[in-house]
Every structure is written in structure tokens, then in C-alpha cells.
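RECORD TYPE: inverse folding
INPUT: C-alpha cells
STRUCTURE:
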């Protein structure tokens, strides 16, 4: 059994959340820390857009601001995700790790075993998605509309969305595990030609995605979900998770990255 660091950073701003993932990648690359599993929430709620995703003409920036949310651009690709009442996870591990396949798709499967076991801890019978045909054919800006390889689905509906990047030898995979989902607010974040098309998209979305509490008779809290997925990752990846708390100097580095990149309009809107 291998020991990884476990970072429970609770609820942070969107900029600080993205900055902490980047800082942890840097420290692991420098050999200062072992691989990391991190759990976190968002305060205020945030809309994260993919590294290559276009904002202008796709994202309703006024809609984001109207709800008091903040937009942030991720290091990872993919489509936009509304992070509200959810548990978000990050896995930071070297590409050279003996358990990590060279293929992004196969590495997804390894890491997603932690998610699979987390759902089992909640008595939710999830399955790995094996998409048929070409993905991303909808042209939608909304992440949860299509499952990717080895993401988790329940009754054919996506229950966790993940994205992965590899930078200078380090894998970052992070993902969203919705506890509750507000579809009306979600679709206020995106630009549609008219309200009729938006409403049709919202109704179709209900058939494609589900949250934890929509699958359970007794609703779960953030802490209960966090506890279940911590056990899930320990079991699924055969890990001993050692709590790790950032010191003052490390927090200062996280804030510096947030200020330079993730609160910067040029990074968030104009890439």
C-alpha cells in the first residue's frame, strides 16, 4: 500500500482552487511532496471553462455574474462546468508512476476506480462509461451532456465529470461530483439563440446527468460525500492517505499563482 498526501481544502474561491491544483503539481514535480489526492468545494460557486474553450459567444458572462458566480479557466480541457453544491477532487501524480499508464484513456480508468468505489460507499451502483462512436458531436459548451471514456454513469446518466492534463511530467486529473444540481441556473450560464432552444436543451440535459441526492432517498451532506469518496479512493487505488496541511509559505505561493493567473481576465476570458 502506497502513501499519498490527502489535502482537504474545504471551500475556496474558484481562483484559489485552480491555483492550489497548480501549486501541488509544481511541488510534486520538484519532489517536495508525494502524489496527492485533494478534495474541495467552491465559495462562491464557479463556472470553470476548459483550457481551449471559447468564452465569447458561448458563455453568458452576465448570467454568471447575476448569480454571484465567478468564471475561471482550468488547466485541463473539456467543456464548462458549474461548480456549486458538489465535491471536487484532484489527483496529482507523476507520469512515471508505476501504476500510471502512458495512455490518457487508461490512466482515466485507474483513477476512476476511486470514484467507482466512492459511489459504492454511498450504495450507488455506478458503471464506467464506454462511449460509442465519436464524442463531442453535440457542439455544446456544457460538460455534463456527454460522458467521456471511463467516466461514471448511473442508469445511463453521467454522475461525475473529469478532465486530465499532463504538464512537464505531471498528471493532473480533477473532476466534479455533483451532490445537487440546479439545471435552471446552469443553463443561465450559456448563450442560446432563443429561450425555446435553451429550454429544450435544459429538458434534454435532465436525461443525461444526475446528482448524488437525486439517486438517494436520504440526502447526503458535503462532509458525508467527502468521507465516502475518501474511503473509495483508498480502496480503489490501494492507498494510505496522509493528511497534509499547507504552511504559511505554501499558502502565499497559492495566492501568488491565483493573482497572476486565475483572477486575470486575460487568462480567463481571452485565451
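DESIGNED SEQUENCE:
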Amino acid at each position: 500500500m502506497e502513501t499519498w498526501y490527502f489535502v482537504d481544502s474545504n471551500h475556496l474561491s474558484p481562483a484559489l482552487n485552480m491555483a492550489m491544483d497548480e501549486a501541488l503539481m509544481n511541488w510534486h514535480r520538484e519532489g517536495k511532496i508525494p502524489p496527492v489526492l485533494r478534495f474541495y468545494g467552491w465559495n462562491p460557486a464557479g463556472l470553470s471553462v476548459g483550457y481551449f474553450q471559447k468564452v465569447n459567444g458561448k458563455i453568458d458572462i452576465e448570467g454568471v455574474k447575476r448569480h454571484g458566480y465567478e468564471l475561471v479557466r482550468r488547466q485541463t480541457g473539456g467543456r464548462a462546468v458549474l461548480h456549486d453544491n458538489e465535491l471536487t477532487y484532484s489527483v496529482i501524480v507523476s507520469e512515471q508512476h508505476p501504476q500510471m499508464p502512458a495512455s490518457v484513456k487508461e490512466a482515466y480508468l485507474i483513477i476512476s476506480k476511486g470514484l467507482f468505489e466512492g459511489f459504492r460507499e454511498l450504495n450507488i451502483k455506478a458503471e464506467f462509461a464506454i462511449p460509442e462512436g465519436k464524442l463531442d458531436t453535440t457542439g455544446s459548451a456544457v460538460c455534463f451532456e456527454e460522458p467521456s471514456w471511463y467516466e461514471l454513469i448511473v442508469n445511463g446518466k453521467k454522475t461525475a465529470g473529469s478532465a486530465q492534463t499532463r504538464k512537464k511530467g505531471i498528471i493532473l486529473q480533477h473532476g466534479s461530483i455533483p451532490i445537487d444540481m440546479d439545471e435552471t441556473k446552469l443553463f443561465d450560464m450559456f448563450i442560446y439563440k432563443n429561450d425555446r432552444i435553451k429550454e429544450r436543451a435544459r429538458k434534454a440535459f435532465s436525461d443525461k446527468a444526475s446528482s448524488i441526492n437525486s439517486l438517494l432517498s436520504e440526502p447526503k451532506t458535503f462532509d458525508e460525500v467527502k468521507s465516502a469518496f475518501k474511503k473509495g479512493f483508498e480502496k480503489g487505488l490501494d492507498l494510505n492517505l496522509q493528511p497534509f496541511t499547507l504552511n504559511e509559505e505554501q499558502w502565499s505561493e497559492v495566492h501568488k499563482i491565483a493573482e497572476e493567473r486565475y483572477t486575470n481576465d486575460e487568462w480567463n476570458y481571452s485565451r
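NOTES: The chain has eight helices and twelve strands.
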